[in-house]
Input
Amino acid sequence: MNTSAIFERIKAAAIEDWQRYVDHEFIRQMEAGTLAQAVFQQYLIQDYLFLIQYARAYALAIYKSPTLEDMQLAQGGLNAILGEMHLHIRLCEGWGLKKADLIAAPEHAATIAYTRYVLDCGQRGDLLDLHVALAPCMIGYAEIGRRLAPALAANPNHPYREWISEYASEGFQQAAQASINHMQQLADRALTEARFLDIVAIFSKASQLEADFWQMGFDLAREKN
Ligand SMILES: Cc1ncc(CO)c(N)n1
Output
């Protein structure tokens, strides 16, 4: 099949789920700076647990790599995830939470659902399936970071400056672009017309699980109140 601009085509085919993820109420409140800190804290603790499993998914991508170049690209993704976790440690330290407290937190069902879904896509499928399941994570956060960055210029005291800056950063933007480029290579090699709908279904599901992940922050903060 014609696989040009494959990321844009997959996103267009899953646009409703994608928008529910990147335009979630959590992101709107984050942009406005009105998101309750309790909601953000619950989200961030779960996100730390999420990233541990996500690092395993990138490690699986290394294992599933047919070529050395695929392996090096997956290693870049793994490094980006491991680097991102410093943000979580830093922000949590500011609230008096230590790394040990984070690791000891129970994983929420939404965290388990999303991470294990991605790991399963990788286990049963090939590197393209796994890569598509991984895509909403890095590419979505990069899109959100770019979109929210102007809110920082508008508000010098923005409460979520550190978080937004991380995802708007050159390093994170590059990692997301590398992910788009790798997906393109994999699609050129392995994507057929018959597989396209399966690939879109994986992307849609992962985007839905991302939206559920934002929602979890609100739900957990309400339960703890
Ligand atoms: C749930 C989730 N998705 C994506 C990212 C970006 O790596 C993250 N930190 N957490």
About this structure: The mean pLDDT is 96. The radius of gyration is 17 Å. Residues 22 and 144 are 6 Å apart (CA to CA).
